[in-house]
Specification:
By secondary structure, this protein is of the alpha+beta class. The protein is built from one helix and two strands. It has one helix spanning 5-27; strands at residues 44-48, 54-58. The chain has a two-stranded antiparallel sheet with strand order 1-2. It is rod-shaped. It starts with a helix and ends in a 9-residue tail after the last strand. It comes from Candidatus Thermofonsia Clade 3 bacterium. This is Efflux RND transporter periplasmic adaptor subunit.
Length: 67
């Protein structure tokens, strides 16, 4: 049984609209993934020994606040 031409036109228009919306939704760029921020390195202090040579001493400082 054939449907009336008006019904077929409306069905065709909604099908076209659905495919267009589907195509637009799939064509969008994905959201970029956030990059983690680097933890700053603690300052390195130079310590002089009795022999006059210099050694590096890295003392880890506790974090002042968490982000």
């Amino acid at each position: 049984m054939l449907r009336p031409p008006k019904f077929r036109a409306v069905l065709w228009a909604f099908s076209l609209l659905g495919w267009l919306l589907f195509g637009v939704g799939c064509a969008q760029q994905p959201t970029p993934t956030p990059t983690p921020t680097a933890t700053p390195l603690p300052p390195i202090e130079l310590v002089r020994t009795q022999g006059g040579s210099v050694i590096a001493s890295a003392r880890i400082q506790p974090a002042q606040r968490a982000e």
